[in-house]
Task: inverse folding
């Protein structure tokens, strides 16, 4: 049942062509009138009306009147549950989204230092089973599982790519979708975490309504995801969008991927902390650096400004190749706002690019740390042949996740 390394998650959604076109239009454009759907899909009004009735009968769409004469159609879901898992080097995080009861249940497992590097497949399987039971659900209630890995996933094998295996050693040579799907008995999609975050931001956040969207995650590590016409773009080997390993300086610091001078070696947490330590700074985390800069610390402000300038160089290079309409910055550096964007906007490369591409927009991502988990839901809904035109409040993280010690 596990089919995790196809181009858009589980692959095709199984619907007829006309219905699929309507679903895709609602997924990409959000709530729309039936007249707008007819124009977008080039289907007749009568066909649109019949499809909307079919979707409503399945509980996959709702029609809401916005004034006395006009109504809009939205994709919804009212049955089943989707589980989204985030596998980080130092923690595991999962959430079950119960559409039947409009409820979300989270769990986080911080990994002890001796058990870090992403835990193990067995740890994820145990976590998912426990979460389903704690939510009062059975395995038959779960329609899909999405897993976001803090590492690139190679195609067509579906394993963590070779140069990233030292980061997640217990996942070496594991065909993740097959391993988890075989144990749990549900369809599984496996993606790089930044790809899922990009999909969430395209669906409900900063990239909504764009045809070409680049998302960059900047926190402990740097990752990226590229959305083209509503789909994660993987490229031939699954590494498309890995902007963190774009080489900015040939003689720069050595990166864990084996190259020198990657973007990661300038704007991830460790190099930023190292730059501050060299200047006599004493902050223990990237969040601490941001707090210090907001409090007026000049050294912290400087390293964040310079991180922004490095991002500007990388974004300009990427934009020349894929010409995105929007680039969104997520993670802690995105949350730093003007402390980073001041350097980004002042970079020579970005200013030069904007003279030839004035419509390019560089924005702060909107979904925060929740983006990867929500992106897993978006991938699962796509597999089910429907989606969510708008993000319900109950699906958003409202407080600290329930935690266990591994």
Result:
């Amino acid at each position: 049942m596990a089919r995790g390394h196809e181009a858009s998650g589980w692959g095709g959604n199984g619907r007829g062509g006309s219905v699929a076109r309507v679903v895709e239009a609602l997924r990409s454009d959000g709530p729309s009138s039936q007249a707008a759907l007819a124009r977008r899909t080039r289907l007749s009004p009568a066909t649109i009306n019949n499809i909307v009735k079919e979707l409503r009968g399945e509980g996959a769409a709702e029609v809401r009147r916005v004034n006395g004469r006009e109504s809009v159609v939205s994709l919804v879901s009212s049955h089943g549950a989707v589980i989204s898992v985030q596998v980080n080097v130092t923690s595991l995080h999962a959430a079950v989204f119960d559409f039947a009861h409009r409820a979300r249940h989270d769990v986080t497992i911080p990994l002890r230092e001796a058990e870090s590097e992403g835990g193990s497949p067995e740890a994820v399987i145990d976590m998912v089973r426990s979460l389903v039971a704690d939510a009062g659900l059975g395995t038959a209630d779960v329609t899909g599982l999405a897993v976001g890995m803090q590492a690139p996933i190679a195609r067509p094998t579906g394993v963590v790519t070779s140069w990233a295996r030292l980061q997640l050693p217990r996942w070496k040579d594991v065909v993740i979708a097959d391993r988890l799907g075989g144990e749990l008995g549900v369809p599984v999609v496996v993606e790089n975490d930044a790809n899922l975050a990009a999909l969430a931001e395209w669906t409900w956040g900063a990239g909504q309504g764009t045809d070409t969207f680049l998302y960059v995650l900047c926190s402990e590590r740097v990752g990226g995801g590229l959305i083209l016409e509503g789909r994660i773009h993987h490229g031939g080997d699954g590494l498309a969008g890995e902007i963190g390993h774009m080489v900015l300086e040939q003689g720069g610091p050595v990166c864990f991927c084996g190259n020198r001078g990657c973007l990661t070696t300038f704007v991830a947490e460790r190099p930023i902390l190292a730059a501050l330590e060299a200047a006599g700074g004493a902050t223990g985390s990237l969040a601490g650096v941001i707090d210090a800069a907001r409090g007026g610390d000049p050294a912290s402000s400087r390293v964040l400004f310079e991180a922004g300038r490095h991002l500007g160089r990388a974004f300009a290079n990427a934009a020349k190749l894929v010409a995105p309409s929007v680039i969104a910055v997520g993670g802690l550096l995105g949350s730093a706002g003007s402390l980073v964007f001041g350097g980004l906007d002042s970079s020579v490369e970005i200013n030069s690019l904007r003279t030839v591409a004035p419509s390019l927009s560089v924005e702060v991502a909107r979904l925060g740390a929740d983006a990867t988990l929500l992106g897993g839901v978006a991938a699962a809904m796509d597999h089910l042949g429907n989606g969510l035109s708008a993000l319900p409040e109950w699906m958003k993280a409202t407080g600290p996740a329930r935690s266990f010690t591994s």
About this structure: DSSP finds 14 helices and 13 strands in the chain. Residues 1-14 have pLDDT under 50 and may be disordered. The longest helix spans residues 298-322. The radius of gyration is 21 Å.
